[in-house]
Design goal:
The longest helix has 13 residues, at about 290-300. By secondary structure, this protein is an alpha/beta fold. The protein has helices at about 45-50, 130-135, 140-150, 185-195, 210-215, 225-230, 270-275, 290-300, 315-325; strands at about 5-10, 20-25, 35-45, 75-85, 95-100, 115-120, 120-125, 175-180, 200-205, 220, 235-240, 255-260, 280, 305-310, 330-335. The protein folds into 2 domains: about 5-140 and about 285-335, Quinone Oxidoreductase, Chain A, domain 1 (Alpha-Beta Complex), CATH 3.90.180; about 155-280, Rossmann fold (3-Layer(aba) Sandwich). Strand 8, helix 4 and strand 9 (about 200-205) form a beta-alpha-beta unit. The protein is globular and about 60 Å long. The chain contains 9 helices and 15 strands.
Length: about 325
């Protein structure tokens, strides 16, 4: 029997890391098609601090509902505690991981001892993978997968009219990953190598040994060299940094190449047409089936989730402060005792 209350991180106001409060709240009840997960670890992702700040800069029409107080977070690894009457996919005691209700619900409650999750958002956690590693996989891994391997859904992108179509990757493909040491970047690097591509990794110089271990064929230290001036004739650029500077990578592409900015970026349609290149993006979405594919690669040792740092749930503010300092190597994860 679940306890009546649990510990959770809640927002009662928007602001800096200091607004993350460690509260006692009711344990949620799973609805139809859902399970209750006893959380062991929680992945920390950029949408977590965007929500904490009240998502400044997001156009009103694109803002998801945010009702205070709310429990942030979407990435979890844990053990099924209970299931709704109609659930047959999982049973109490199953170890699972998932990206919960993203992007439709940014107050779904992963920063807590318990969370409810639709069964379609979950995958089984391999026995040989610990909860901290598993919690670092869902959002970052699915982002890399949906940008590079298979989109897997027909939802329109909020960023563009054109539907994102991942470029086929193989031995004749050269891919540049900007921000290659970060959460999405280090997983994207490995997925591109898994598909046989040659990978150029862009990161600060201290990350080079790490990126070489992951399979990078070339590493560019952006603190010393401007990557847009040192590489050319690329087939694909995955820019996990995005923003206004993303368009500088257009000059690195061969005709027929593509640039995928993970975060919002602005481009000139006439320029891309003149260069003969494509710019497309998508919004990562929860997908238990795709996550199962990723966990198989993780279990086989083909994919590695690097953990930058861990913090106990009650120290979520310190985790957000670490994220704000940047230069991450992999993922930040919260742990639940």
């Amino acid at each position: 029997m679940s306890p009546r209350t649990m510990k959770a991180i809640r927002l009662h106001e928007f602001g800096g890391p200091e607004v993350l409060r460690y509260d006692d709240v009711p344990v949620p009840e799973p609805g139809p098609g859902e399970v209750l997960v006893r959380v062991h670890a929680i992945g920390v992702n950029p949408p977590d601090w965007y929500v904490r700040e009240g998502m400044p800069g997001v156009p009103p029409g694109m803002l998801p509902p945010l009702t205070l107080p709310l429990i942030p977070g979407t990435d979890v690894s844990g053990v099924v505690e209970a299931v709704a009457d109609d659930v047959v996919e999982f049973a109490a005691g199953d170890e699972v991981l998932g990206l919960v209700r993203f992007p439709g619900d940014l107050q779904s409650g992963a920063y807590a001892e318990y969370v409810t999750a639709p069964v379609t958002d979950l995958a089984r956690k391999p026995a040989g993978v610990d909860h901290v590693t598993a919690a670092g996989l869902p959002m970052a891994g699915l982002t890399a997968w949906q940008f590079l391997i298979e989109l897997g859904h027909d939802h329109p992108s909020p960023f563009q009219e054109a539907r994102h179509q991942p470029m086929p990757l193989g031995a004749d493909t050269t891919v540049l990953v900007n921000g290659a040491a970060g959460g999405v970047g280090h997983l994207a690097l490995q997925l591109a190598k898994w598909r046989g591509a040659r990978v150029v990794a862009v990161a600060s110089g201290g990350h080079e040994p790490f990126l070489r271990e992951l399979g990078a064929d070339e590493v560019i230290d952006y603190t010393k060299v401007r990557p847009e001036e040192s590489v050319h004739d690329l087939d694909l650029v995955l820019d996990t940094v995005g923003g206004p500077g993303s368009r500088r990578f257009l000059r690195t592409l061969k005709r027929g190449g593509a640039l995928y900015p993970v975060y919002l970026a602005e481009f000139d349609d006439e320029e891309t047409e003149r260069l003969g290149v494509t710019v497309t993006a998508t919004q990562v979405r929860s997908d238990g089936a795709q996550l199962a594919e990723l966990t198989r690669l993780l279990d086989a040792g083909t994919l590695r989730v690097a953990i930058d740092s861990t913090y106990p749930l009650e120290k979520a503010a310190a985790a957000h402060e670490r994220a704000a300092r940047g230069h991450l190597r992999g993922k930040i994860v919260l742990t639940v005792d």
